[in-house]
Amino acid sequence: MSKGPGLFTDIGKKAKDILTANYTTDQKFSVNTCSENGVILTSTALKKGGLSTGDVAAKYKYKNLLVDVNVDTDSKVLTTLTFTEIVPSTKTVASLKFPDFDSGKLEVQYFHHHATFTTAVSLKQAPTVDVSATIGTPSIAFGAEAGYDTTSSTFTKYTAGVSVSKPDSCASIILGDKGDSIRASYLHYLDELKKSAAVGEITRKFSMNENTITVGGSYVVNPLTTVKAKLNNNGKLGALLQHELIPKSLLTISGEVDTKALDRTPKLGVSIALVP
């Protein structure tokens, strides 16, 4: 794939990941194993809100084809096929869930030095269509996405965004929720090795006349350990510690406290991902 402005979903992603990625209040345990023929099996157990669920996933890659099969506790099977470079600079993703065949989707991504385009169509009689486009460079990008429901002949979404990236910082503005919200974020690396970073984000919801301000940061303590924290103007304080127990095996502990209601029990989440 050529280096270009990236997908529309990449706009603001670095800042969003610091504020949201790997934060959890659930208990999750997963084990990865790899067979001799290259099939990667993943077994996952999840406890959420007193309910326990689990799934088994298998991945297999052959040349430019990636096959991903996931079976959950309800015996639903999700199969995803990803083809790369069938046509130069493209990626094709096809997914189908059994027995819910209407959940199938076909997506095509096209990458160019100065533009990317994606089209996703649901595989049902009256499909929904999602399209997105981004133009620019890795340093500055403008993008938009829209979703259209052919059944009701209405737009399900339309969003626009812009991002500016420098070696030590990146900023983005996204107008979403059909124009009802705007989110601006800024990330700044505090050292040349990018071991520490600070993030600020403000979201404005016009229909509710409400602002949400969130600040956070991450710090790489050592090659095996990373810590993150975040706080918003509603008093929600979150913290996370991630440690690599053995190569590619991660222990993640995260928690959330409502600083405006300290009498409430803090939320705690633990995730263990083992790769023998």
From TrEMBL:
GO molecular function ontology, one term from the record: voltage-gated monoatomic anion channel activity
Keywords, sorted A to Z: Ion transport, Membrane, Porin, Transmembrane, Transmembrane beta strand, Transport
Cellular component annotations (GO), alphabetically ordered: mitochondrial outer membrane; pore complex
Domain of life where this protein originates: Eukaryota
Transmembrane residue ranges: none
Listed CDD domains: Porin3_VDAC (cd07306)
Record carries keyword S-adenosyl-L-methionine: no
GO biological process, one term: response to bacterium
Organism classification: Eukaryota, Viridiplantae, Streptophyta, Embryophyta, Tracheophyta
PANTHER family in alphabetical order: MITOCHONDRIAL OUTER MEMBRANE PROTEIN PORIN 5-RELATED, VOLTAGE-DEPENDENT ANION-SELECTIVE CHANNEL
Native source organism of the sequence: Punica granatum (Pomegranate)
Family matches, as Pfam families: Porin_3
Coiled coil stretches, renumbered: none
Name of the protein described by the UniProt record: Uncharacterized protein
Family: Belongs to the eukaryotic mitochondrial porin (TC 1.B.8.1) family.
Keyword set includes Flavoprotein: no
Localization of this protein: Membrane
